[in-house]
Amino acid sequence: MAEKLSETERETALSELQETGWSLDADRDAISKEFKFSNFVSAFGWMSQVAMVAEKMNHHPEWSNVYNNVSVTLTTHDAEGLTELDLKLARRMDKLAG
Amino acid sequence: MAEKLSETERETALSELQETGWSLDADRDAISKEFKFSNFVSAFGWMSQVAMVAEKMNHHPEWSNVYNNVSVTLTTHDAEGLTELDLKLARRMDKLAG
Predict the structure, then answer these.
(1) What confidence tens digit (pLDDT) does each residue in A13-45 have?
(2) Which of A40, A55, A63 sits opposite B65 (nearest CB)?
(3) What processes does the entry annotate via GO biological process terms (chains A, B) (predicted)?
């Protein structure tokens, strides 16, 4: 099972992810980002790519979609906070969107 | 452009949709439903089917997914309320989930 990040790991990872638009929801120890695409097909196409990555990782996002916009929150429920899995999925999401 | 439903049309449609678990959000003149599946693959598989139907209708849901759960809200932004498009998409969603 994934373990919660240490303070140092969290600081380092967050400063990197904040540069690409992720923000920390301190209440839930989760990270969130809004992804914007040109239209619904692009948004859902990206979600489909992410869905396969997430299923393979056995680590799934909380996400909402309204037309060309996808709002994502990542946290590890089992660990009740951020783990390496969240950072990995966040980076994959950025890469697939980029 | 789709027109807002008349009071009578809305009443008839809502009583039918409420039987399958849809509820009215009167504030927004929207309908909502929680769809539950056995796992993420089933949930996202259903979303993929709905995505194609929605794109073809050019009428898209507001939806959130957390693992096996999909929360859907339907309304017609252009008409600022429920139209025939929402009823049609709601019925298609039920059929694809059933």
Answers:
(1) 999 999 999 999 988 899 999 999 999 999 999
(2) A63
(3) tetrahydrobiopterin biosynthetic process
Q: Which domain holds residue B78?
A: 28-97
Tell me whether residues A62 and B64 touch, CB distance under 8 A. yes
Domain-located, residue A74: yes
CA A58 to chain CA mean position, Å: 14
Q: pLDDT 10s digit of each residue in chain B, 98 long? A: 789 999 899 899 999 999 999 999 988 899 999 999 999 999 999 999 999 999 999 999 999 999 999 999 999 999 999 999 999 999 999 999 99
| Chain B residues within 8 A of A56 when measuring between CB atoms | none
**What's the CA gap between A35 and A93, in Å, rounded?**
9
Which ipTM value was assigned to this complex? 0.95
Whether residue A54 and residue B40 make contact (CB cut-off 8 A), yes or no, is yes
In a domain, B37, yes or no: yes
Q: How far is A86 from chain B (nearest CA, A)?
A: 15
Cβ proximity of B73 and B62 under 8 Å: yes
DSSP secondary structure string, A37-52?
-SSHHHHHHHHHHHHH
Count structural domains, chain B: 1
**Residue A12 within a domain:** no
Would you say residue A1 lies in a domain? Answer: no
